[in-house]
Amino acid sequence: MTISDRPLTAMIGLPDGPPDCAAYGRAGGWQAVRRALRDMTPDAVIDMVTASKLRGRGGAGFGTGQKWSFVPKDPAATRRKYLIANADEMEPGTFKDRILLEGNPLQLIEGMIIAGYAIQAGHGVIFLRGEYHLALERLNRAIAEARQVGWLGEDILGSGFGFEIHVHASGGRYICGEETALLTALEGRRAQPRSKPPFPQVGGLWGAPSVVNNVETLCNLPHIVTNGAEWFVSLGLGPDSGTKLYGVSGRVRRPGAWELPMGTPLRAIIEEHAGGIRDGYRLRALLPGGASTAFLDAGQIDIPMDYGAVEKAGSRLGTGLAILLDDRTCPIGMLHNLEHFFAQESCGWCTPCRDGLPWVERLLDAIENGTGEPEDLDRLHDHARMIGPMGRTFCAHAPGAMAPLASGLKLFREDFDTHIRLRACPLRHAA
Amino acid sequence: MATILIDGRACPARTDENLLQACLEAGADLPYFCWHPELGSVGACRQCAIKQFSGPDDKTGRIVMACMTQVTDGAILSIDDPQAREFRAGVVEWLMTNHPHDCPVCPEGGECHLQDMTVMTGHDSRRYRFAKRTHRNQDLGPFINHEMNRCIGCYRCVRFYRDYAGGEDLAAFAAHNDLYFGRHEDGALESAFSGNLVEICPTGVFTDKPFSAVYSRKWDMGGAPSVCAHCAVGCNTIVNARQGSVRRVINRYHEAVNRYFLCDRGRYGHGFTNAPTRPRAPILRQGGIPVPISMATALERFATMAKDGPIVGIGSTRASLESNFALRCLTGPDRFSTGLAQLEHDLTMQVPALLRATPARNPSLHDMESADAVLVLGEDVCVTAPRLSLALRQTLRRAAFPAADAAKVPHWMDAAVRMFGSDAPSPLMVLTPAATDLDPIAATAHRAAPDAIARLGFAVAHRLDGSAPDAPDLSETESRLADTIATALRTGRRPLIVAGLQYANAALIHAAANIATALHATGADAALSLVAPDCNSMGMALTGGIPLDAVRTMARTGHIGTLVVVENDLTRRLDTATLDELLAAVPHLVVIDHIATRLAERADLVLPAASFAESGGTLVSTEGRAQRFLPVITPTMPVQESWRWTQQFTRAATHADAPEWTNLDQIVATIAHDIPALSRIIDAAPDAGYRLDGRRLRSEPARISGRTAVRANISVHDRPLPQSPDTPLSPSMEGAYSPDTPGALVPFYHAPGWNSVQSLNRFQQEIGGPMRGGDAGARLLDDGIPAQAPEWHHDIPAPSTAAPDDLLLLPEPRLFGTEELSALSPPIAARVTPATLRLGTLPAGLQDGGMVSLTLAGERLTLPVRHDPALPPGIALCPPHLAARAFTAPVRVQLHRDDTP
């Protein structure tokens, strides 16, 4: 594999740690920001990113160029606007942004300058997961150096465009990863999502136009600007362009994350890169892209991991980091663990999520611990049906929580019945 | 106007409202929790889910939250849709997972919005079989009970308390279903509007604590429309009583005045009506010994006294028009006093005159909310007129509207509007001697002495209109500030000037009038609001009378035989020496009052008057709005209305022209006839002859079962109450009731299926609009008529030349403690803090908390000092009445260090 096949991670894992400004430049960095600020108009950058078909890597997969296009076109000097890097990576089983943040913070900084220039924002904020201490240290060091060298500050490269980056270490709630709750938290208020419209691009941080992009999304920008949209499109194996950080956790031989072409088949990721399932275990099902994606059956692993294919298979690409369920782990226990997480991380704003998720958690707890009743399954189905569709709850948290439940109820129907019939978890007692 | 289809029924709807409002206005029963007509929509509870269809061919539709969806013409909706119904029942089922089943012992029971909504959704059996979460409750002070286990997480409390009313010590804590609304630690809620939580909370988390102590179910209490007596704003209230005692006060909606909210002084100030010290029988003082006597004897004694010379009457700015007028009839206009000392008398008389002479509008509270540039000139409205300060606070929310409009965000979309508001400039400017609660949200907050503020005011007027006189010799800082303020006011299309009588400074209100006149001349829709001190100061100003100083002169010259004082504790108006001198020169002193006063202790004859809860009457608010309060309790003899006492005096004194009033309406008619300025008070409310469908209005909600038997050990029957001739309301559940009842006559809110105050929605023409039966009260002052040429005031104070150690002591009214009646209410009294002397610079050697001595209003005082570095030099503050009883107006004082331990 040549370096240009994995642009995001090319400079990561070098023996000297993350590159400094000079090393970053020697390895091809800063070309993009030079090109964008000197040779391109903000609109040209947006057009290029739109042409690259880059889609948001945070999980929703919204077109990045399109997202930017809703921002009012005032120049940075006349109107306060913000670019926010969503580095609040709290999705269970997902650790891709951490690799990018710790491994090459300057790549994110360059991406943010380009994005900031495209939407004409004078300020960038990195909203960082509170527990990412190493990333915080490296980001602060990188930002300080970039500011000293002149990559940040007023009038970058004499272009007239100025850009500052601030890092905010999160107080630590999963909901802060939701872009509007992130904005509310940044304002120093209780992290609650906001209703849309107004969208952040129109009224975001303190009411100012704001764009929230995922770390991985932003890290793609320097490479798109340097190598062109066509190159980026050509990286993908299927309809989606670029590369993607895919990962696997669970009982595989080599759990981890790898930068692979967009659309790499799931089977290849599990068997080639993760080394396959460990001996004595069999793959039963998996969550393809984090805790809030629906289960795929073991028989569905021949699909390519792109947005459309995973959706067609009944789930979502999500973050692209899969969590595997093997045949010796209780699926009810796994669901209970997931729903415990979602119930605990509900912000408490809307009723179905705040009071519905704890009910689901307790039902699963009861079933797993041998006090389940047959009608408990009806209650679980009720919740999946009533909370699952978007729009019933205030934000996507509860529908996300219902995705593994609804699919799990179908896939693991026999396990549920056995638990209730035996009044015990068969796997736990068999062990 | 748009048309929407609700379950096939075509209903008119406004395009600037949301679907929930439209459905409610169409009379549909659509449950909700987090939406509030005054707080707007946030989409938290998900209770108002309905189906919306994209067109006639759409058979699937999608669930939307009605409160978060704008009305569009031709929208096709279904409330009845099975999926929507199932979801709404599900929401209540979720809410109920942790809600205790304690309705029988919950004070909210019977008027609980959660009960109503639960019944409305049809959720009736519990399927959640796990343990409920429990919370620890807090002591939130004397006003509010806290029972967090009942919380359903609608966020209304914090949205009102923080976002709407600017409070900071109530917040949402924790997350998921462990959500907690409370303070960071136990303690009295600090906001002046905390009592509204009782009505804002849709269930029994925040309930009325004093009411709990004398609790009665809603359906067991009578209600009467009333008007708050604890400041001059004139908030409309409902007073609830049972068995002859007042139980609580709740808000009565008035579109233009208080709308949905009261201040805590108004809600909890009523305790004086049940005070054990209240005079309940006529008292004759013989040789210093008080002796209870009969009414007949009392009247005989008065007739005897009347033979000893002319009768002079002293009225009161806290008594009704009727009580004052009846006294004026007894004495004649020349011997009727306003009960105010010269300075306050002169200023009070000026207020209506100024409002009439100034071409600017005289705004209602609701009108003030939409002002886009506000100058508060030398009045701490947060304590003198708290509800008015809440209206001014809303100008900030309005400041966000332009940005919201640009983003096509409707005004009811509260969270989004407030987000845009975080960037909007504040329209508020506050010039006061001491910090006020509005300062943190004001664009400008400037500290200066009243005269200096008046000078700034004149300077601002001059900058707006060159023909207005300028204040000479302004400092450079003052000049710049005047420029800034004038510029800000000039940019407003609806600028508002607020001033008042707090510092008894004529130049202040004149400066305010000059600014308003100048703004009006610029073509702006300018408004001027002047805050009067007492609930009927304006009524007194329009009635007229002589100042107390004139009474003193009459007494000195031996022209008073009997002095009749109605509802006025002169010890609060005149210092001891002055009062002693007056009383020494008066052979007989008769006091009519419903509270025990120090003056009454010195009276020869004390007669028990009816309080606001036991009488009908009219008060004129600071806006010049005449409003009627009606009795919720029919007083039992010998307690009767002050005007009935004085009417009987008139007869007893054998005046040939004794008035023949047999009910309130007759005296109202006489007032309207005799005093042209008050001619419209007849329109303040329908008279006692008002009938709906040929019947009186009932004052109690209908009920199917018996009453709650609080005195069953004595008798299972409630004593039937007598009918008062002064009210069209019956004292029972017999009578008519309708949402079309005139606003002035609403005794309680109820609609089928809606037992809580939320049923108010059914009484309005549109939500947040006028009452279906018409709004209460009658405006007496027309907006000023523009003169040919502006008339300017020229009494510009000279710059201060006071020596550095010369102290001007200003009255510092407090929210709790300085207003006479509410201070007698136990929950309010519990919030009163001891008087201090606030000083900007402490004399050498004196620490914060150290003691100083001074002579004030004839009293030698020793007070602890509170250091307030924000105060301008030469200014000290002391609460009126609390330290020195008769201290009300600014005075120069000398301080002495008090070294006594």
From TrEMBL, chain A:
<keyword id="KW-0479">Metal-binding</keyword>
<comment type="similarity">
    <text>Belongs to the complex I 51 kDa subunit family.</text>
</comment>
<dbReference type="GO" id="GO:0010181">
    <property type="term" value="F:FMN binding"/>
</dbReference>
<dbReference type="InterPro" id="IPR019575">
    <property type="entry name" value="Nuop51_4Fe4S-bd"/>
</dbReference>
<keyword id="KW-0004">4Fe-4S</keyword>
<protein>
    <submittedName>
        <fullName>NADH-quinone oxidoreductase subunit NuoF</fullName>
    </submittedName>
</protein>
<keyword id="KW-0408">Iron</keyword>
<dbReference type="InterPro" id="IPR037207">
    <property type="entry name" value="Nuop51_4Fe4S-bd_sf"/>
</dbReference>
<dbReference type="GO" id="GO:0046872">
    <property type="term" value="F:metal ion binding"/>
</dbReference>
<dbReference type="Pfam" id="PF01512">
    <property type="entry name" value="Complex1_51K"/>
</dbReference>
<feature type="domain" description="NADH-ubiquinone oxidoreductase 51kDa subunit iron-sulphur binding">
    <location>
        <begin position="332"/>
        <end position="377"/>
    </location>
</feature>
<dbReference type="Pfam" id="PF10531">
    <property type="entry name" value="SLBB"/>
</dbReference>
<dbReference type="InterPro" id="IPR037225">
    <property type="entry name" value="Nuo51_FMN-bd_sf"/>
</dbReference>
<dbReference type="GO" id="GO:0008137">
    <property type="term" value="F:NADH dehydrogenase (ubiquinone) activity"/>
</dbReference>
<dbReference type="Pfam" id="PF10589">
    <property type="entry name" value="NADH_4Fe-4S"/>
</dbReference>
<keyword id="KW-0411">Iron-sulfur</keyword>
<dbReference type="InterPro" id="IPR019554">
    <property type="entry name" value="Soluble_ligand-bd"/>
</dbReference>
<dbReference type="GO" id="GO:0051539">
    <property type="term" value="F:4 iron, 4 sulfur cluster binding"/>
</dbReference>
<dbReference type="InterPro" id="IPR011538">
    <property type="entry name" value="Nuo51_FMN-bd"/>
</dbReference>
<dbReference type="InterPro" id="IPR001949">
    <property type="entry name" value="NADH-UbQ_OxRdtase_51kDa_CS"/>
</dbReference>
TrEMBL record, chain B:
<comment type="similarity">
    <text>Belongs to the complex I 75 kDa subunit family.</text>
</comment>
<dbReference type="GO" id="GO:0008137">
    <property type="term" value="F:NADH dehydrogenase (ubiquinone) activity"/>
</dbReference>
<dbReference type="InterPro" id="IPR001041">
    <property type="entry name" value="2Fe-2S_ferredoxin-type"/>
</dbReference>
<keyword id="KW-0408">Iron</keyword>
<dbReference type="InterPro" id="IPR036010">
    <property type="entry name" value="2Fe-2S_ferredoxin-like_sf"/>
</dbReference>
<dbReference type="Pfam" id="PF10588">
    <property type="entry name" value="NADH-G_4Fe-4S_3"/>
</dbReference>
<comment type="subunit">
    <text>Composed of 13 different subunits. Subunits NuoCD, E, F, and G constitute the peripheral sector of the complex.</text>
</comment>
<keyword id="KW-1278">Translocase</keyword>
<dbReference type="InterPro" id="IPR006656">
    <property type="entry name" value="Mopterin_OxRdtase"/>
</dbReference>
<dbReference type="GO" id="GO:0016020">
    <property type="term" value="C:membrane"/>
</dbReference>
<feature type="domain" description="4Fe-4S Mo/W bis-MGD-type">
    <location>
        <begin position="221"/>
        <end position="277"/>
    </location>
</feature>
<dbReference type="InterPro" id="IPR019574">
    <property type="entry name" value="NADH_UbQ_OxRdtase_Gsu_4Fe4S-bd"/>
</dbReference>
<feature type="domain" description="4Fe-4S His(Cys)3-ligated-type">
    <location>
        <begin position="83"/>
        <end position="122"/>
    </location>
</feature>
<dbReference type="InterPro" id="IPR054351">
    <property type="entry name" value="NADH_UbQ_OxRdtase_ferredoxin"/>
</dbReference>
<keyword id="KW-0411">Iron-sulfur</keyword>
<dbReference type="InterPro" id="IPR050123">
    <property type="entry name" value="Prok_molybdopt-oxidoreductase"/>
</dbReference>
<feature type="region of interest" description="Disordered">
    <location>
        <begin position="717"/>
        <end position="736"/>
    </location>
</feature>
<dbReference type="GO" id="GO:0048038">
    <property type="term" value="F:quinone binding"/>
</dbReference>
<dbReference type="InterPro" id="IPR000283">
    <property type="entry name" value="NADH_UbQ_OxRdtase_75kDa_su_CS"/>
</dbReference>
<dbReference type="Pfam" id="PF22117">
    <property type="entry name" value="Fer4_Nqo3"/>
</dbReference>
<keyword id="KW-0874">Quinone</keyword>
<keyword id="KW-0004">4Fe-4S</keyword>
